[in-house]
Write a structure and sequence with these properties.
Layout (H helix, E strand, L loop, with lengths): L4 H8 L6 H7 L3 H6 L8 H22 L5 H12 L1 H10 L10 H5 L6 H18 L2 H22 L5 H11 L6 E8 L6 E8 L2 E8 L2 H16 L3
Antiparallel strand pairs: 1-2, 2-3
Helix pairs in contact: 2-8, 4-5, 4-8, 4-9, 6-8, 10-11
Length: 230
């Protein structure tokens, strides 16, 4: 069921003194293109929310895991703020129901696209910060972090496959893996990239994703599985 931004805020327990900043946070650029009366899309708030999240997630991890060294904290923070995890947070609060989308993006399934959900979640964080303060963002995001961090550690999703592959290759004296994009297809709003990873000219694996980075990670993950590297 579709919701207005105000209905969404009421459902998840958010209070905004400035309703325009809430609406802007949930306005995708495709909606702006089709509705000239709309003043601004959410991309600037997304930029701000990304920075706010980095700080607050880092602060939470520092206090929650006092025994973890800096490298582990960095990897865990990266896992908690990456596109896929932020999209899960957005899905958990059914953020997609309240996003203002253009018809084309709507028809293309934009409400369920991870990159779009991630961007809107970051914009929402930016809007909460602008309308209120760090404490309000903290009260909103911190309850989501405990179960997410626990699952990431159990499933070892904090271990970046590209970093693991590079560490393995260097430990074997085989140099540094290289990545090459071999294909891309699909419309701009849902493009798929295919990437191969090589080591000393030998293909180790390939992967696909909605960005070159995610495709490269998928290729590295495939290579680790083939090489049986744990």
């Amino acid at each position: 069921m579709r919701q207005t931004p105000q209905e969404f805020a009421l459902r998840v327990g958010l209070e905004f003194s400035d309703q325009l900043v809430l609406t802007r946070a949930l306005t995708h650029r495709s909606y702006l293109n089709e509705h000239p009366e709309a003043l601004e899309d959410n991309e600037r708030l997304e930029f701000l929310g990304d920075a706010v999240l980095d700080f607050l997630v880092g602060s939470w991890l520092y206090n929650r895991y006092p025994e973890l060294p800096e490298g582990n904290l960095t990897r865990l923070r990266s896992a908690l703020v990456r596109t896929e995890q932020l999209a899960v947070f957005a899905e958990d609060i059914n953020l997609g129901a309240a996003i203002l989308l253009g018809k084309g993006e709507e028809d293309a399934g934009g409400r369920k696209r991870p990159s779009l959900l991630c961007a809107c979640f970051e914009a929402l964080i930016g809007a909460i910060y602008i309308d209120s303060d760090f404490d309000s963002v903290q009260n909103f995001i911190w309850p989501m972090l405990e179960p997410a961090a626990g699952a990431i550690l159990i499933e070892e999703r904090d271990k970046d496959p590209k970093s693991l592959l590079q560490e393995w290759a260097q430990s074997q004296g085989r140099g540094t893996p290289t990545y090459r994009t071999i294909a891309s297809y699909g419309p701009d709003h849902a493009k798929i990239f295919e990437v191969k990873v090589y080591l000393n000219g030998e293909e180790l694996g390939r992967g696909a994703g909605h960005s070159k980075q995610s495709a490269a990670k998928a290729a590295a993950k495939t290579a680790l599985e083939i090489l049986d590297v744990k």
